[in-house]
Amino acid sequence: MSAIIDSFIAPPCHDDIQILWQDEHLLLIDKPSGLLSLSGKNPQNLDSVHYRLVQTYPGCTLVHRLDFGTSGLMVVARNKAINAALCQQFSQRSVEKVYSALLCGHVEHDEGIIDAPIAKDPALFPLMSICPISGKPARSRYRVVERFYQETGLPLTRVELTPETGRTHQLRIHCQQLGHPILGCDLYGGLEAPGAEETPRLMLHASELNFIHPVSGEPVNARHAAPF
């Protein structure tokens, strides 16, 4: 096994975390693009969602993460019991997550399923790869919202993405597999199309999060529109 060396240093993130809703048990937040979910091992990567929130909400813990470049909805537990209850919903795949994204090119079909197993490869870190032999099952659904052209003439498709599994980089690598990488994705081809190289961020946003409140038993249906 090759040792994995993470040399990534996150640039400073000047955007604030928005608290969208809270009670004594949990927080619903909007994570800005360009902020780590958890602080890294490298002391230069101290700033993160968790690092910031714990200053105001001692004892809070993350139930799930969003990639550094992804913005949008996250649920944060305010104590260990709530964390355990929410983690159980995530592991049972009863939490529905919907993402908004801009894909390079015009996607041919109005909707579809990408079913492609994803594997870690230490030699390629941080890249994941599609591998039918050693990969873990991964499925994502997509639905086209609109097809248009950027001012630069770059054809783009706005889609809703619903991951049925939760693999690392799943939506990013699945969209690349579809032939339409997410605009601004530095790892999976989203900066390669002419006119895409100046994109300021990864155009992926967690726009919906549906789960059951672990104390009240009521459904929580959170919505937060993409900023792009």
UniProtKB/TrEMBL annotation:
Keywords of this entry: Isomerase
SUPFAM superfamilies associated with the record: Pseudouridine synthase
Keyword Magnesium recorded: no
EC number: 5.4.99.-
InterPro entries (alphabetical): PsdUridine_synth_cat_dom_sf, PsdUridine_synth_RluA-like_CS, PsdUridine_synth_RsuA/RluA, RluA_PseudoU_synthase
Biological process terms in GO annotation: enzyme-directed rRNA pseudouridine synthesis
UniProt feature coiled coil, ranges: none
Every Pseudouridine synthase RsuA/RluA-like domain range: 25-177
Molecular function, one GO term: pseudouridine synthase activity
Family, per entry: Belongs to the pseudouridine synthase RluA family.
Protein name: RluA family pseudouridine synthase
Native species: Enterobacter dykesii
